[in-house]
């Protein structure tokens, strides 16, 4: 069987009646050339008829752009794919990118892995810019990349660092969750974090928990805090440890719904009932939260909007649009009441 001849830019030029250079300018969206709208439409129609798609490497040589955004997550692949919050963020990011003709390259990087991997994504021209989710206080390579002028946007934030970011009010959301439990009469409230404290979101949610306790005149007890690590397994282990404390907490705030899945199972395995014996509140409002047994009361986080806003901010930087410095978008959270919390027994 004869091999089908590959369609080239020259074929498009011949059909459209223009030069190959004009085809290159039109299909690579180079706007500073004086090409009439009529000519541009002829080229696009010829490319459509011939089912021609520009070679990615050739496009990169002409424009200096990959039209790819890097989405870097500071988690191991195992943690990333266990995190039920992530797909919603990625959906928002991908849709915003596609609207402007960009693709997304997803790269999870384990905490112990060299941070230089995402610097290479930019420096070796695999991507035009990076959206980094889950920034850490100890990430010197990220700061270096920013100082070198790379296009970087954070989902999350680093205090005193002027890297543009999109985030939610982690402190306010955690305070809201803890205040809700206090309003139900709970005075002995445990906490399972979403991640280790070198992740800024984890530290902020711990801060909101402490603020709510102190505002209510309740003392913060380190013995009522355990540390999750993004996964249901970490939530199970953290909750099993917390259930050894005496007297038992009457309620627990788990600062991630994904981690709360494991915490819920641990409570059951201990022979306790939710919310009769212990109330449980989460954070994120993953799609599964309303279908658990019992349905999980949680703090709603606009995950899709996080991804969308981060992509929009990065694309604005790439297109040379002016962004206020420091650029920050803080999205609101709200409480979603379901059936996993009850009034404390007197």
SSE inventory with pairings:
Layout lengths: L8 H8 L3 H8 L9 H14 L5 H8 L4 E6 L3 H6 L3 H14 L3 E6 L7 H8 L5 E5 L6 H8 L4 E4 L9 E4 L1 H14 L5 E5 L6 H16 L9 E3 L4 H11 L8 E4 L2 H13 L9 E6 L12 E4 L2 H16 L9 E4 L2 E3 L10
Parallel strand pairs: 1-2, 1-3, 3-4, 4-5, 5-11, 6-7, 6-8, 8-9, 9-10
Antiparallel strand pairs: 10-12
Describe the model.
- This protein has 346 residues and is an alpha/beta fold.
- Helix content is 42%, strand content 16%.
- It has two domains: 68-167 and 303-331, 3-Layer(aba) Sandwich (Rossmann fold); 170-302, 3-Layer(aba) Sandwich (Rossmann fold).
- It is built from 13 helices and twelve strands.
- The protein has a six-stranded parallel beta sheet with strand order 2-1-3-4-5-11, sandwiched between helices.
- Strand 8, helix 12 (257-269) and strand 9 (279-284) form a beta-alpha-beta unit.
- It is elongated and about 80 Å long.
CATH class label of the largest domain: Alpha Beta
CATH topology of the largest domain: Rossmann fold
Q: Helicity level, as a percent range?
A: 40-55%
The low-pLDDT segments are none
The general outline is elongated
Domain HTH lacI-type: 7-63
Pfam family, one: LacI
Protein name: HTH lacI-type domain-containing protein
GO molecular function: DNA-binding transcription factor activity; transcription cis-regulatory region binding
Question: Which key features would you list for this structure?
Answer:
single chain; 346 residues; alpha/beta; Rossmann fold; 2 domains; 6-stranded mixed beta sheet; 42% helix
